[in-house]
Amino acid sequence: MTRDIALVVVSLIVLVTVMIGVKWLGSRFSWRPELARKGVHVATGLYATFLPFMFGEVWPVLLLVGVAAAAMLVLRLPRLAKDGLGSTLHGVERHSYGELLLAAAIGVVFALSIGNPVLYVLPMAVLTLSDAAAALVGTRYGRKFFEVEAGTKSAEGVAAFFLVTWIVAMVVLLLLSDIGRGNVILLSLIIAAFGAMVEADSWHGLDNLFVPVGIYLFLAGHIATPPLDLLLLAATFALVLVAVVALAPAVGLSAHAARGYTVFVFLICAVTPAYNAILPVIAILAHLGVAKVRPWQSAHPNLDFLATLSTVAVFWLAIGEITHINALHVYNLTFAGTALAIAALATRHRLVLAAAAAAGLALLLFVIAGWNATRTSVHDLPWPWVAASFLPCLVVPLRWPEFLDRYRGARTLALAMPVPIVAFISFAVRS
Question: Which of 172, 247, 357, 402 could form a disulfide with 122 if both were Cys (CB 3.0 to 4.6 A apart)?
C-alpha cells in the first residue's frame, strides 16, 4: 500500500510538472492554445498508458484520477483558467470537458481491463496519439471541413486519426497479444474505422471518454473473434448504420446524432445480450416522440440525450466490473425509469396513459430480468424497488413538467438514478 500511495503522489507531481513545463514552453515559443492543450494531453496520456505496469490494483488508480479530476476542477476557476496554470488546458475558446473526461476514461478503462494490459494500453494509446494527430493535422492542414452540431471538423484530421490508430493498434496487438497476424491487421483496421467515426462525431471533449471506452468494449468482446466473423460483424454494422442514417430525417434526427445512437446500441449489443438494448432503445424512441410534443430547451437535444444514456451505461458497466457484482438489473431499471420520465411528458397530465406506460415498462423490465437471471448474481428484481424507482419518474413530469424543459438529460438522471443506486448497494450487501 505504501508503494502504491507513493506512486500516486509521484504521478500527481509529474502531472503538475508537465503543466508547468508546457506553460513555460508555450510562453517561450508563443505556442497556440490548442498546441499547449494537446501537449498536456499527449504527455499525461503517455504516462497514463503505462499505469498497468505500475499498479496491480484498481484503488490507487481511482485515487489518482479522483485527485487529478478535483485539481482540474480547481483549475477551471476563472482566474487560474485565464492566466494561471489552468490556461494550458482552457486557453482555447471552445467549450470542452476534455480533461475531466480523460481522467474518467483512465479510471473506467483501467477498472474494466484489470489483469489484461492490452485492453487498457490500446484504447489509451489511441486516445493519446491518434487524437493529438487528428487535432494538429486538422488545425494545420485541414481544407475539407464538415459540420457537426457543435462546430466543424476536417476530413484531414479524421484521416490522420484513422491512420495513426491503425498503426498503433497493430503495434500494441503484436506486442501484447498472441492473436494471429492476419487477425491483427483486420482487427486493427476495424478499430481504426470505428474509432475515427466515434472521434469525428464526438463533441465538447466527449471523445476523451467515448473513444477509449468504445474501443475497450469492442476489443474486449472481439479480440478472439475469427476474421470471417469480424468481417460479417463489420458489414452488418455498416448496413445498419446506413439504414439508420437514411431513416433519420423521418424521426427528426441529424446524420450525426443517428450515427451516435447507432454506435451506442451497437456497443451495448457487443458486451451483453441484445435484449439488454431494448429499454435504452425505448428511451431513445420516447425522447424522439416527446421532442415533437414538448421540445427540449437545448441547442443539441439529441446529442445531449445520447450523452445521458452513455453516462448510464458506462456508470453501471464500471460499477459492475469494479465490485464484481453484475449490475444488469439496476442498469435496466435505470433505463426503464429514464424512458418513463420522458414518456410521462407526452401524456400531458393524463394519469391513465402515464400509468399504462409505467405498467408496460414494469412488465418488460421483469421479463428482461428473467432473461438475465442466469447472468447476474441477483436472481430477482423485487417489485418495491421498481415502484420506488418509478414513483419520482412518474410524479415529477406529471406534476412539474417544466422541470424537464431544461437540462433534461441531467434532470432525468436525477430522477432515474438514485433508487437503482440504493438498490445495487442493497444487493451488494446481501451478496
Answer: 172
